[in-house]
Amino acid sequence: MNTSQTNFHELSGSQGDHHLDLYIKALDSANSGIIITDNNQPDNPIVYCNRAFETITGYSRNEIIGHNCRFLQAQDRSQPERKLLSDCIEKGLDCKVEIRNYKKNGDLFWNELYLSPVKNPQGEITHFIGVQNDITARKKAEHDLIEEKASVEHKIQERTKELRENQIFLSSIIQTVRESLLVLDPDFRVLSANGHFLKTFKVSSEETVGKILYELGNHQWDIDLLKELLVKILPTNNPVIDFEVEHNFPHIGKKLMLLNAYRIEHDGQYKDRILLAIEDITDRREIERRKDDFLSIASHELKTPLTTIKGLVQLLQRMQEGGITEKYKATLMKVAVYVDRLNNLISELLDTSRIQSGNIELHIEPFDIDHLVKDTVDNIALTVPGYEINVSGKSGAIIRGDESQISQVVNNLVSNAIKYSPGSKKIEIHIAKVSNFVKISIRDFGMGISAQDKPRIFERFYRAGDIQKKFPGMGIGLYISHEIIANHNGTLWVESEVGEGSTFSFTLPISKK
């Protein structure tokens, strides 16, 4: 395929519009996923995707437009194909790769991607077009064929033995399995892994079966507590029940697991297989912790301003006899500040409650998004002198939505950029029109967000451990912002690296006349 010669600018007039409509319908009818990115926009965002691309990835168009294509690789960033794609885009070359991608639900799929530049009449690259096909089934078939050829003679020899032990094997599984399940040989080599294990830890069967347990995923299962369980405890011939292990996996973050292990027994003898059941209790333990943290934080955050207000009011009462002084006015201003702080906390809690109950109201009116962003930023700048908040770009677009709620989102994101960048005084905001969406990006140069915290940053009451210790708050501002944008048929996401700052971006559909 050579799409570098494709030039939609040659279409003009009613005949051109007819051809363009025909081309778009043809693209939408294709079985292959097709995207177009705008090379003139920062970060080369996606401006078009066909229906097949939505079907293959599991994302809707609203969640795709405005993103860079790399979002499909999630945290799996070490693939050499990513560098090859980047080099071809920089040099304006055609490219074909087979790369691991992840669907919206987290499922792994293999993507065969063809990428080509699109040039204008002057020979300048204006866009890139990508065509992708899901080749997961082909990959699996190739692997299965190789395995089948290598094991066919061995299967014939082992078949009779497997039939005799099958009943015992299934009985042992019932005694041990809870969620993820591995079957190991005496050398701790994986003989089989169930689908739940593969999905939970985002690996494929060919990456797991036949490998030493400790070497799985670039040695990410090389865990001291796990070795203690298998090498010291299990050989005592006692089953291991609810052995708790916590480990930080490079690609999926920290996991808290309950391990249960059992040796297969037959006629009083321990056979050469070990069943290892793994229950992921990370979310359950996190919910318990966040519930306790929320009660503690809420009581502290609400109690502190109330106590201060009470003391200041008592002071004002004693000062009334001497008339109103400058000290009296200053004290009154402090009262107002703490009242506003308390009011904001209560408003956020009420917004969260309304979102959860589905009773949040939208007052839909058309408004100029460019003016809204600049007005909101100007108001924030007045309260934080000394900060350099730069707004660039424009969309010239009219949005239909709740103007006050969108302003609240911008205010939350810019305020967070200031709050979590204690060593920096610079904030960059960019406005752009991407296809039929407006994209707003707020970039800071602060502490950044870890890969472990990033997937959960928009969850209700979620706060990273190191942030919770340094900065006050209840962890609901980003949750509210995410829900507001979702209610406006847009998408809010973050790109960040620890120590290099964060970029929060959201898209909103442009109003049709």
UniProtKB/TrEMBL annotation:
Please provide, alphabetically and separated by semicolons, the GO molecular function terms listed in this UniProt record: protein histidine kinase activity
Q: Which reaction does it catalyse?
A: ATP + protein L-histidine = ADP + protein N-phospho-L-histidine
Q: What is its main location?
A: membrane
> Which residues does the UniProt record annotate as the domain PAS?
19-92, 166-237
Key words, A-Z = ATP-binding, Kinase, Membrane, Nucleotide-binding, Phosphoprotein, Transferase, Transmembrane, Transmembrane helix, Two-component regulatory system
Give all residue intervals belonging to the Histidine kinase domain.
297-512
Q: EC no.?
A: 2.7.13.3
List the Pfam families hit by this protein, alphabetically.
Answer: HATPase_c, HisKA, PAS_4, PAS_9
**Cellular compartments annotated:** Membrane
Q: What class of enzyme is it?
A: transferase
| InterPro entries in alphabetical order | BphY/WalK/GraS-like (IPR050351), HATPase_C_sf (IPR036890), HATPase_dom (IPR003594), His_kinase_dom (IPR005467), HisK_dim/P_dom (IPR003661), HisK_dim/P_sf (IPR036097), PAC (IPR001610), PAS (IPR000014)
Domain PAC residues, every copy: 95-147
Membrane-topology descriptor: Multi-pass membrane protein
Keyword Signal: yes or no?
A: no
Q: What is this protein called?
A: histidine kinase
> From which source organism is this entry?
Chryseobacterium camelliae
Q: What broad taxonomic lineage does this protein's source fall under? A: Bacteria, Pseudomonadati, Bacteroidota, Flavobacteriia, Flavobacteriales
